[in-house]
């Protein structure tokens, strides 16, 4: 779309470039400031309420640390899947259960590494925010290096802004690629993003998270990994603003379910200033994911109560059944450490719980068997 065809309220312009013009967004903050509709404001209130419910119920459960880790891993898996990785939540749990020296298929390993890198980067970023560190360009570059460790494409610059043009394929057949701004303009644009975050934004934090995410993805400052880092930034920003005590919502799952609309809504902002439509899409994502997380946590709490009632005795089998939410993926030798029992007793526990249908073996091997808690995985996945 030539520059002259963009409406006046478009937050940027197309600059001639062969073979496709590149988009040069205006720096933040948005000028003039947007007057949000009643519908958007109502959705902000609803999303904030749902997020508050999640934080409320999550703080009341005994397995909050496990829930925290599980949801980070779910977010990692969904973010990797958006980028085309073939990885499942079970793969991450299996990886953390394995012992050094275990090997995996190279293709699966690379996809799994993307998800593991996201888990590492998100956990690190949250620790920085929780310690009082601000969100800076330096932190983003550090997180970018973590995300692309051992998975980057040859020639990609890691931990620094890109030095070349990139072309983003449209999800719609026949539509020209979207070309983000030139490398020469990245420094000024990203400095405006940093300043915007530091000043606390212009709107409600949930709306500002949408502004920040759109801007980051549109600028596309790195040669690779922008989608993953941009989605991670949502969680870090909301945590820094006090809207997430812990990452109990994971927006990547919503974006993955609505992948085409996700891209088109952001492009509509660039081409026509369609901020309200983008805000509503983004806020609905946060609202629906918070609702799902609340339901998931409630179901896990009910499951925990069931295990405590049905396995209230003092046998090793009873003791471990009550701990299944803490150890949803394990091997029989792991139980020796978890329960402080002999290997013979550990295998008896496995036999009992497998017979009761609480766990199932997932590898199909005769040796080196691995087990998952069936009900826990059904809820988490």
Architecture overview:
Residues 135-284 form the Fido domain. This is Fic family protein. It comes from Salinirubrum litoreum. The chain has 381 residues and is mainly α. The protein folds into two domains: 3-296, Fido-like domain (Fic-like fold), CATH 1.10.3290; 313-380, Winged helix-like DNA-binding domain superfamily/Winged helix DNA-binding domain (Arc Repressor Mutant, subunit A), CATH 1.10.10.10. Helices cover 58% and strands 4% of the residues. The protein has 15 helices and five strands. It has helices at residues 38-58, 64-82, 89-97, 106-130, 137-147, 186-199, 205-219, 226-240, 252-257, 259-272, 275-310, 316-321, 332-339, 343-356, 374-380, and strands at residues 12-15, 22-25, 329-330, 359-361, 371-373. A three-stranded antiparallel β-sheet has the order 3-5-4. A hairpin with a 6-residue loop joins β1 (12-15) and β2. α1 (38-58) packs parallel to α11. The longest helix is centred in the last third of the chain and has 36 residues, at 275-310. The two termini are 41 Å apart.
List the main descriptive attributes of the protein structure presented here.
15 helices; 2 domains; Fic-like fold; 4% strand; 381 residues; mainly alpha; Arc Repressor Mutant, subunit A
Describe the secondary structure blueprint for this structure:
Blueprint: E1 12-15, E2 22-25, H1 38-58, H2 64-82, H3 89-97, H4 106-130, H5 137-147, H6 186-199, H7 205-219, H8 226-240, H9 252-257, H10 259-272, H11 275-310, H12 316-321, E3 329-330, H13 332-339, H14 343-356, E4 359-361, E5 371-373, H15 374-380
Antiparallel strand pairs: 1-2, 3-5, 4-5
């Amino acid at each position: 779309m030539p520059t002259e065809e963009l409406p006046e309220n478009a937050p940027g312009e197309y600059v001639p470039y062969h073979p496709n013009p590149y988009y040069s967004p205006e720096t933040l903050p948005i000028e003039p400031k947007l007057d949000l509709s009643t519908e958007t404001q109502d959705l902000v209130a609803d999303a904030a309420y749902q997020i508050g419910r999640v934080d409320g119920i999550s703080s009341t459960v005994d397995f909050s640390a496990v829930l925290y880790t599980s949801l980070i891993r779910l977010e990692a898996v969904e973010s990797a899947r958006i980028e085309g990785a073939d990885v499942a939540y079970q793969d991450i749990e299996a990886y953390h259960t394995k012992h050094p020296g275990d090997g995996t298929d190279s293709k699966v390993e690379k996809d799994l590494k993307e998800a593991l890198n996201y888990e590492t980067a998100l956990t690190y970023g949250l620790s920085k925010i929780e310690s009082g560190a601000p969100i800076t360009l330096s932190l983003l570059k550090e997180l970018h290096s973590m995300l692309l460790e051992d998975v980057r494409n040859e020639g990609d610059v890691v931990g620094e802004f890109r030095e070349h043009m990139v072309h983003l394929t449209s999800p719609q057949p026949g539509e020209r690629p979207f070309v983000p701004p030139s490398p020469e303009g990245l420094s000024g644009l990203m400095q405006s993003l940093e300043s915007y975050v530091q000043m606390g934004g212009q709107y409600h934090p949930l709306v500002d998270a949408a502004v920040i995410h759109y801007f980051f993805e549109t600028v596309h400052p790195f040669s690779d990994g922008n989608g993953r880092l941009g989605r991670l930034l949502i969680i870090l920003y909301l945590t820094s603003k006090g809207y997430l005590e812990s990452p109990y919502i994971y927006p990547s799952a919503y974006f993955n379910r609505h992948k085409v609309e996700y891209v088109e809504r952001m492009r509509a902002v660039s081409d026509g200033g369609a901020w309200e439509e983008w805000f509503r899409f983004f806020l609905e994502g946060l609202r629906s994911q918070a609702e799902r997380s609340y339901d998931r946590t409630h179901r896990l709490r009910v499951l925990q109560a069931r295990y405590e009632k049905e396995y209230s005795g003092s046998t090793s089998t009873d003791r471990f059944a009550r701990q299944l939410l803490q150890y949803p993926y394990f091997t029989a030798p792991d139980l020796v450490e978890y329960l402080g029992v002999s290997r013979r007793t550990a295998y008896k526990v496995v036999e009992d719980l497998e017979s009761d249908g609480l766990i199932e073996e997932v590898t199909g091997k005769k040796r080196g068997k691995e087990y998952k808690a069936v009900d826990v995985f059904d809820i988490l996945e």
